């Protein structure tokens, strides 16, 4: 086979945020792109549904009009902060700082709606052909290009992009990221209606109950009076404790007095849905001969918050730059594409590393209680923690013993 038989320049597997961002950035390039997704849009994606300020900022970095379209997108509610509930049940409300773009620092939107919004931005692009409802069965890398087989057709391309989530077949066939329970979280989600007690500014809630540490229980408000409820925990802890996450979710709602009151008139809208989170707590190879891995397929989920959409969009945007470079040079070697790995970790590793270490601090519930209590009684501590949400350098302070010594003795911080 030779180049005359190549169907596409690029095949992108996965039409979620990472695949969207990559293809959107390549929409004006002279490149023929195929996108393959096993689902048909609109489709659900099990997730917490929270969208950080970075999501909005990535849209504006990609295209001003894209950011403006998202601001007009109706199927979302704003969120101006986060409530941290400590193991001793005291809580701390922190307001997000104003973002660089947009009307709110964060939003919450069901993934069935949000991902469909993204899909609509690429479905009619002239250089993009989308194959929905097709399962990828096999992928081979040959000297001339990539061969991909779905349950309906065979395609060839010069490059392939793995944007196909936690169980990426692109990674499985071509990459080298293995599932490691210490670097993987198990999660469960259930939609409800009628949950009460939300903050007036739609704060997302993270409840750090002792029995879940170093994981947490969450409640996120949604449009139309609904709520996204769930919990996430390191897979190694789930295995060690032999936990049934569905049972754990129900037990928490039924046994914790604060939750029991808020859920007394609530109705579940679905059975609990399980999912996996490959967290970015370890550097991995993200590329190779003729391929790149993006988003969840590249294990770029924040270890502490579990947020992955912002990093998925960012990885797709960055990947497009290296794809353009590869085609300009007609060079698809692992050596050239490894520059993508370097850039991703240059942009993301510092925050991922710090988030991992903060995640490990959650093994000490009394420390969490102490910080929350101090923040509630000391406005300067509360201001510092607010700034830490967006400032990686300030976040490092949480890892230093002297930070807690200062808190203990009431010193100025």
TrEMBL record:
Pfam families: FAD_binding_3. Coiled coil: none annotated. SUPFAM superfamilies: FAD/NAD(P)-binding domain (SSF51905). InterPro entries: FAD-bd (IPR002938), FAD/NAD-bd_sf (IPR036188), Geranylgeranyl_Rdtase_fam (IPR011777), Geranylgeranyl_reductase (IPR050407). PANTHER family: CONDITIONED MEDIUM FACTOR RECEPTOR 1 (PTHR42685:SF22), GERANYLGERANYL DIPHOSPHATE REDUCTASE (PTHR42685). One of its GO terms (molecular function) is oxidoreductase activity, acting on the CH-CH group of donors, NAD or NADP as acceptor. This is Geranylgeranyl reductase family protein. NCBIfam families: GG-red-SF. Residues 8-312 form the FAD-binding domain.
């Amino acid at each position: 086979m030779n180049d005359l038989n190549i169907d596409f320049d690029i095949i992108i597997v996965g039409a979620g945020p990472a695949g969207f961002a990559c293809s959107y950035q390549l929409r004006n390039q002279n490149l023929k792109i195929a996108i393959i997704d096993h689902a048909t849009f609109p489709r659900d994606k099990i997730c917490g549904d929270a969208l950080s300020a970075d999501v909005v900022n990535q849209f504006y970095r990609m295209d001003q009009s894209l950011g403006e379209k998202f601001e007009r997108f109706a199927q979302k509610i704003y969120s101006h902060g986060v409530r941290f509930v400590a193991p001793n049940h005291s809580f701390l409300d922190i307001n997000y700082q104003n973002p660089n773009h947009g009307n709110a620092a964060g939003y919450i939107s069901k993934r069935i709606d949000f991902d469909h919004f993204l899909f609509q931005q690429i479905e009619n692009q002239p250089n993009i052909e989308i194959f929905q409802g097709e399962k990828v069965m096999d992928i081979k890398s040959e000297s001339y290009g990539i061969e991909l087989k779905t349950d309906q057709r065979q395609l060839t391309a010069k490059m392939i992009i793995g944007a196909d989530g936690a169980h990426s077949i692109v990674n499985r066939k071509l990459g080298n990221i293995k599932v490691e329970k210490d670097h993987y979280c198990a999660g469960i989600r259930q939609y409800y209606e009628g949950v009460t007690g939300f903050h007036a500014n739609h704060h997302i809630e993270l409840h750090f109950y002792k029995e879940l540490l170093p994981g947490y229980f969450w409640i996120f408000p949604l449009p139309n009076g609904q709520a996204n409820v769930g919990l996430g925990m390191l897979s190694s802890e789930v295995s060690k404790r032999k936990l049934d996450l569905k049972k754990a979710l129900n037990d928490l709602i039924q046994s914790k007095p604060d939750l029991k009151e808020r859920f007394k008139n609530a109705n579940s809208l679905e059975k609990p849905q399980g999912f996996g989170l490959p967290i970015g707590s370890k550097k991995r190879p993200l590329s190779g001969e003729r391929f790149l891995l993006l988003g969840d397929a590249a294990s770029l989920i924040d270890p502490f918050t579990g947020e992955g959409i912002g990093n998925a969009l960012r990885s797709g945007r960055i990947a497009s730059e290296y794809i353009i470079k590869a085609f300009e040079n007609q060079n698809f070697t692992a050596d050239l594409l490894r520059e993508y790995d370097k850039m991703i970790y240059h942009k993301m590793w510092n925050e991922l590393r710090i988030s991992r270490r903060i995640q490990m601090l959650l093994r000490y519930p009394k420390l969490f209680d102490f910080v929350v209590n101090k923040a509630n009684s000391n406005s300067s501590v509360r201001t510092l923690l607010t700034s830490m949400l967006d400032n990686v350098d300030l976040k490092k302070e949480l890892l230093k013993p002297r930070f807690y010594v200062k808190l203990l003795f009431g010193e100025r911080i």
